[in-house]
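hiii so um. not sure if this is the right channel but i have a protein structure encoded as tokens and i wanna go backwards to a sequence. like what aa goes where. can anyone help
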């Protein structure tokens, strides 16, 4: 199961219940993604918070900034999905504790590529451009 987006200061506290419900439904593995606000989503999300959670708007946006080096978005590959800093650590710790309690992520099996085969069109790789 993938929990996302986790909105710090708004939905992060729900992770343990979601993880337990997922485990109860048969999930064995879980992951999460922290809220990402690229491009125009920053303004749209800020307006949505103002409309639906005006009392938490500043708290949420400041936590997102704290997790994104002072910005509302960080495009760096590993940082954009998890964030960095104290609030990112809190989310990571809450997630890990929820997984342990729910019995998730403890039996990771190695992936196998034994059944994978690369399709080869007539004429080799260039044949992909002729297929249609």
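sure thing!! here u go:
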């Amino acid at each position: 199961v993938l929990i996302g987006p986790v909105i710090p200061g708004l939905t992060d506290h729900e992770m343990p219940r979601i993880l337990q419900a997922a485990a109860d439904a048969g999930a064995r593995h879980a992951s999460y993604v922290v809220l990402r606000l690229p491009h125009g989503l920053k303004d749209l999300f800020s307006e949505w918070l103002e409309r639906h959670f005006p009392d938490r708007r500043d708290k949420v946006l400041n936590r997102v900034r704290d997790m994104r080096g002072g910005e509302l978005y960080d495009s760096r590959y590993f940082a954009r999905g998890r964030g960095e800093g104290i609030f990112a650590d809190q989310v990571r710790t809450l997630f890990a504790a929820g997984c342990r309690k729910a019995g998730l992520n403890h039996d990771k099996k190695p992936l196998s590529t034994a059944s994978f085969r690369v399709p080869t069109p007539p004429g080799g790789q260039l044949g992909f451009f002729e297929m249609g």
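oh and The helical segments are 15-24, 41-52, 57-67, 77-82, 86-102, 127-130.
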